[in-house]
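Chapter summary example.
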Amino acid sequence: MGNFKNLKKLLLGSALKDDQLKNEKLSRLWGLPIMASDAVSSVAYAVEEILIALLPALGIMAASFVGYVSVPIILLLLILIFSYSQIINHYPNGGGAYVVSKENFGKKASLLAATCLVIDYIMTVAVSVSSSTAAILAVYPFLEPYRIIISLVCVGLITLINLRGIGESSKIFGIPTYMFIISMVALIITGFVRYFSGALTPINYSPDQISNILNTNLSGMTLTLFLCAFSSGCSALTGVEAVSNAIPSFKEPSQKTARQVLFMLGGIIIFIFGGTSFLATFLNVVPISEKTVLSQMAYEIFGSGIMFYVLQFTTSLILLLAANTSYSGLPILLSILAKDRYMPRQFSQRGTKLSFSNGIMFIFITSSLLLIAFNADTHRLIPFYSVGVFVSFTISQFGMFIKWMRSKEPGWQYKSLINGFGALVTFVGSIVVFTTKFTHGAWALLIVTPLLMWFMSATHSHYFRFLKGISILGYNYKYKKSNSNDSFPCVVLINKMNRAALKTFDYANEITSNVTPLHISVSKSETERLQKQWKDLKIEVPLKIIYTPYRDIITPIENYINEREKELKDGQSLTVVLTRISGNGWKDKIYHNQTTFFIEQQLRKHENVATILVPYFYSKPKSKSKNKLLHK
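The structure predicted for these 632 residues follows.
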């Protein structure tokens, strides 16, 4: 145990107290790059995705039509920024599309939104890391046999940095993101200066470079082609929703800070995406096998100077850092789902560095499994990417439309019009993205999405059964003073007030008159509630409270037991009574912390301490009323 703690401290640093959480919040300066990494990295290849979609039908003329696709995407971005700013105003606890749909549609729609967001966040990590690995292998092809290992190391490093806390990760990941943004701004400004001065000319491709392009069927722009290019270019919009999901991560006033970050993010995306679209059109650039569109533009504008290589380096780096947006948004979403009992409650707990460490580890495990399963191949992972975020866009837009129609608050007419139009456009985008990627593997989402929704629903049902089985609502408890003549010392661990805890306390009270009920407090509000319940039940034995600012339960228990052990007389022993709740076998190991097991294992090392486990089996409920129980 001691070695593990030392290793943990070495990797993660010193634990943070609860009151230090405000210092871990994101400011505008560092919140922007954390939230921008996914969206900005998407902008880096959005124009290329549009050209790839247009190329087969338009050939060398594809660049001339980029503007027709880019302008609607920018308009949709403005709608999304407006919508998510309203979501931030009305839903301060984060959750984005999930909380919007929960309030305006109900359970099924909210679970669909949550599922889509979870899938998209996980795919963001897998796609970003695999594309970054591909960039490394392009420079060092001899590392190809180690593709998966390199990808896993990259995911591991990002995970480790995020486990060290929001404050540290924002600064580590923020600087490279700002470097990329500055490089792109320099590219666009330099390009515009050269364009207006007449020093910039379209790219001339060699016959070999465009031989395949010239053999295409020039059928012109059609609605189907436009929709395909539009859906491909909408990759520039991924990551916009992350700010509304992570409102609690921002410094107070968190809503104001989040809105400002959202507006700054939107401005950066519009400038970079709009600027690169214009320059791509003028330069008449097309994708060729050996060079990316962005690298061609950079070479034409910067030449072979230092800025060309700076942009190439920061582009490769931003593709990796795009994964970090998921580490900011998904753990908070999982914590909200856990509080609503749709995910295991472990996701709602903060770790030693005040981050939602279980959510961070969930990202690491699932994305690593995907990278292994798909051999860290970006092309095999792409079909699963961006479908989920478009569905969540649609649900959140339509949810806000319903909200305005119901509330009739000032300005509801134009607000509902904007969100209604946004819902229509994103709905069309969802269908186009899904259908174009269906045969390439997106069909698997028809299996994965219902399975994840079923898991969330099953989790909710499990917690209902559990809370019904242990709740003291309607339970007629009467405290009985101990009649035991024995006075050997006994400590009863009390976590929350429920039937299981009362059974354990009653058992200890029957075998000795020297009982100390001990509660380790990790939440002042929960502790105050427990103290009130203890008083209301008229239990005469005083409740011992130990507050742990580091959210570590085992260490303060062991320290207290050590002190009590020193007070023992010769021949005496200290009994520690623990509760073991069971009811669904293997499900209990998934849905509940195994704290009792770890405490018992730790106390076994004490020579004069005996542990007793008091079992409590919770039965299935007869009542179908969940609301009171699930919020207790």
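To summarize the output: The chain has two domains: 2-75+119-376, 490-630.
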